[in-house]
From TrEMBL:
InterPro entries: Kinase-like_dom_sf (IPR011009), Leu-rich_rpt (IPR001611), LRR_dom_sf (IPR032675), LRR_Rcpt-Like_S/T_Kinase (IPR051824), Prot_kinase_dom (IPR000719), Ser-Thr/Tyr_kinase_cat_dom (IPR001245). The chain crosses the membrane at residues 116-135, 147-168. It is found in: Membrane. Its main location: membrane. Pfam families: LRR_1 (PF00560), PK_Tyr_Ser-Thr (PF07714). This is LRR receptor-like serine/threonine-protein kinase At1g69990 family. Residues 197-450 form the Protein kinase domain. It comes from Cajanus cajan. GO terms for cellular component: membrane. It comes from the Eukaryota. Signal peptide: none annotated. PROSITE patterns: PROTEIN_KINASE_DOM.
Amino acid sequence: IPSDIFTFLPFVTTIDLSYNKFSGEIPATFANCTYLNILRLDNNMLSGHIPQELAQLQRIKLISFSNNRLSGPVPLFPPGLVSADDFANNRIKLCGEPLPPCRSSDFPRSFKQGLVVGYVFSVTVTMVILHYIFCSEQKKSGVSSCMSMYCIVVMYYNYVLAMVHILLCWHQQIAAVTERMKSTITFNEVREATDNFSIDNAIGIGEIGIMYEGRLLNRWHLAVKRVLSGSKQFKKKFLLEIRILGKYKHTNIVPLLGFGVEGRERILVYQYMSNGRLSKWLCPLESEVQLKWPQRIKIALGVARGLSWLHHTCDLHVVHLNISSACVLLDKNFEPKISNFGHAKFMNPGPNTMFYACDGKKDVYDFGSLLLELITGKTFKELCGSSNATFNLSGNPSIFYNAIDKFLTGEGFENEVYSLIKVACKCVRPFPDERPTMLEVYNNMIDIWGNDVNSVMVPAHSTCLFLLQLRTKLLRHRRHQRAYSSPQF
């Protein structure tokens, strides 16, 4: 299977390569197909390990590896995504959830060979030493060589039994430790990943702690927030982050991988976002890369989608109350992730709808400010300068026309920029009941820009073209394999 498949199928949602005779390993680059919903690789002759990176596919709904020659541990997919049937009938056993735990037999051959060599060497040395001892004793005491050899055999037998017992226990312990390492991250591992929270690994300072970049031994890239030990308010925000991010998973909410408490230490472990905070992209230096208009629209739609989901879709409605460009993180594809839920509140619609509506409209106002920052490159406070400006802008969007980011002018997107300014001005109206809801804002943006970027459906003729390119690429790859000696395993 070509390793660069994602480069010519960037928006593919379904890959079905089942019932072919593909051999070799599964490319880890499948994880770069960020829009992938279905991946079927069953009924082939694929070998090697299943790449752990596939567990990072956030939109995957169905995945199958049955009837291959795969081995080793199964990636840590989200609960309920896969079953044992998805890995059935692999010639070499797979292990780990949802299959039986990994055992010592699942270790690489080099590990077992080293174990056998060490064992044989130790037994041989012991036999030589025992033989020398008994020969010396025989000369002193005159014990017959037969009796001497008998004692050597008995001691050797007991020695072998003891060694076998030790090795079996050792194997079980190693297997148990390996199984735990696949599903948990210890505090010491986080400490090592961040070089003991070195200042060189610090990537930001927030309200409740310092954010560090780290990389585990298995190459997982992490962002670790070390919460400052202080008042009860810090602890409250720490628990709030766990409660919200631990419960709710969404494309546009930063993924919380875990948390830890050890003594006075409190840490939150997130998936690392390689493009950092949105705020750094809106105030770049002249020599730095600038955000293009399509990227800004993608970010605006993503944040609107995330807030709309929090306000209207999840079972306990959540209001963020602190939306800004500093709270929006960008992954490698510039997909926005809402973070920093330390000020958030749970609000159920019901008897207290007035309070819920007020808090919800605060997020709408902050989102409007974020839109204006995306358009102008300046914060809302810099644009307004006074409360009068804040009052007047809602009725006069032309105030911002002269403030549009110079990197957006002359690019042919003027009409779209003006449309987004009108959306933003509705959000920042001075009276909360005059502002739209986040769902209305999101639907308004979809009406202007068409389908949401995360649910883009490729036109039928483009799909045929993509499939034709894929077929050509696969056939070329297969001919290339036949031209050489044997497939690479």
